[in-house]
Amino acid sequence: MNIAKFSVKNSVLVNMLMIGLFAFGGMSLLQLPRELNPNVDFNWIFITVVYPGAAPSETENLIVDPIEAEIKDIENISEIQSTGGEGFGFLLVKFEDMPQNEFREKLTELKAEIDKVTFPEDAENPYIDDFSSSDFQPVITINLAFSIPEENAFKIADELEKELIDIPGIAQVQVSGLAEREIWIEVDPSKLNSYHISFDEIAMALKIRNLNIPGGNISIGKTEYLIRSIGEYQSVKEIGNTIIRKSLTGEFIKIKDVAAVNDTREELQIYSRLDGKQSITFSLSKKSDANSLDTIDEIKSVVDEFRNKVPDGVSFSYTMDNSIYINRILNILRNNALIGMLIIVLVLYIFLGKRNALLASLGIPISFFITFIFMKITGYSLNGSTLFALVMVLGIIVDDAIIVIENCHRYRLKGYNSVDSAILGTKEVVAPILSSIGTNIAAFLPLMLLTGIMGKFMRIVPLVFSLALLASLFEAFFLLPSHYADWTLRSKEHKKGDRKFFIRLKKGYRKILFKVLRKRYYVITTLVIILILSFGVIPLVGIEMFGEEDFDQFKVLIKLPEGTSLEETDRIVKKFEEAAKELPQKPIDHIITNVGLLQANEEWLTKKNVAQVLFQLEHQETRTVATKDLMKMMQAKVKNISGPTSVEFEEITGGPPVGKDISIKVQGKYLTNIKNAALALQDSLELVEGVHGITDDFPAGKNEIKIITDEEKAALYGFNIQTVSMFVRSAFGGIKATEFRDADEEIDVI
């Protein structure tokens, strides 16, 4: 079937189709989710089990090893990474590439296997969750800085957190610098001794008192009633009045007789500051199907409304705002498309006239709108990768339209009417255009074969690139012939013939072409030599997957010796903040400090001996100092600060999170041998030129005090190893006895 002939003979259908493409394409563009990076499913599963007070060796033996034993036989697991840390066991399970429906089945199977594991009585239930690219980076971070009393600020933060989590597109709100509300039962050891009461008795009294138990139902006359035994605490005062037992004299011993009941907050695990002022940080992650720009706009709307309700001394600011970068990328695409269309119209106007120029330029919006329609249908979003593909294909999608128009114009110059010129001109170039588009698509298809995280992020580029090229083919072969036949029906441009300068240009080209053809062997030999020599230049140029760009953020990652208190870590980090004040202040918008938190590409830690200082800079277009230069200045300022075991500088860069340039894993059966081998390897690598920033993820152990129970002496007092251990844990670490419900809030009673 001659597509061009069908197009020309059905101009009404073609025009209606074009109008439909503009309408549905525009609607699809408006409805496409906008985000910084594509949403990629990694097929990773996180498993976390909290075991309060347990040493790393205990979490490894009692948490990590049993889970590994149960899940190791699940098919399609490519890798299991596990960590036995202080008070927690963590496993990262990576599955092979598979469709999401199959991965969900594997997730269900894994949960079923973990349910078979018998955990220690005091361990919390396993937290199991899958992981995608949207979990890597929040869409926006809100900083609540305050100079009012801490408790008042915490209450304001609690209210804001509730409002933020109710936003439809929000998946998670992570809060740093906010202490959760707790009820503390602070026991007086001397009173315990005088009443001969143990910690276990107090914990048991709280558990058996704080209950609502259904008792069935009963029919009285024609009415049926539910029966419920009510015992849940209605106030904090009731907790103090809880009866533990009777004394030897017959009096009731209550909680308040041996302990103070305080409605307080947990000890802060993370200190947060914004520009040196105490702050609370909210990091918000969106749902995978949510539109980043719409979600961020809704977040800002909620915060702006909430801002009017807070007292003086509380301020809000935004950092890590993805909408800035998304809008910047969208502006690049829009500007490139407009500039491309203008250049095409100008060039074609010079050579083929204004009608032909307008016809060719239509190929850009039509091809893009078709691409947007298919992106909407297939679930893709407008993000850095898809926009990169669209910008890259921008100059190619009009090539086939230009070829068709030029060939149709050539037939018009020969005297054919507009209809015949459109049919013959299009039909003649079908094969070469298909070959050209096919080679362009083939050049990008190898990106589909990339593996790992990089492959999952880059796979969308050839898909969108190819989709746009196929859309341009449809426009050139089906829509363009009809438009050419209609729009040039009364045109007289072809009667003018070629313009004088174009005739001179063709004559000059012919002369050069004839000379090249006469000496074609010399020309081919020269080109081959240039090609071979160009391979030798590649090492000088260098190879990099994502080129360096001056981004607006960098971090200082700080680690202190294991066992360092949060207060000591904070004291050291304040020296880094003081050093930052000596930097040029104009390019720095904000300095965000988190003590007790470290978020790097390869590790996310919440420990008392770590910290990070994030520098939020002005946009690169408005500052004169490059990010790397500021990093070097900061390095020079802090190099003499004593205390840290590690200080790393990390620039926030584009592209997917891929970790460091080179990662080496040392495996073995015995930890001592692994550590020695790793240290020896580090010593060797430090001698290699160009290698710097060598780190490992094997932290030094924390100092510990071991309680060794004399079984015979313990037995004399009616104790055993378990009762002594639980007494020590209750006295120093505390145990969660029950929960107190206050409205919709569940508060731990410790």
Verbal overview:
Strands 5, 6, 13, 14, 15, 16, 17, 18 and 19 form a nine-stranded antiparallel beta sheet that branches. Helix 2 runs antiparallel to helix 19 (460-487), helix 13 packs across helix 19 and helix 15 (399-413) runs parallel beside helix 19 (460-487). The radius of gyration is 35 Å and the shape is elongated. The relative contact order is 0.10. The chain has 750 residues and is an alpha+beta fold. It starts with a helix and ends with a strand. It contains 26 helices and 21 strands. It folds into five domains: 3-32 and 325-497, Up-down Bundle (Multidrug efflux transporter AcrB transmembrane fold); 38-135, Alpha-Beta Plaits; 138-179 and 267-319, Alpha-Beta Plaits (2-Layer Sandwich), CATH 3.30.70.1320; 181-210 and 236-265 and 707-749, Multidrug efflux transporter AcrB TolC docking domain, DN and DC subdomains; 553-656, 2-Layer Sandwich (Alpha-Beta Plaits), CATH 3.30.70.1430.
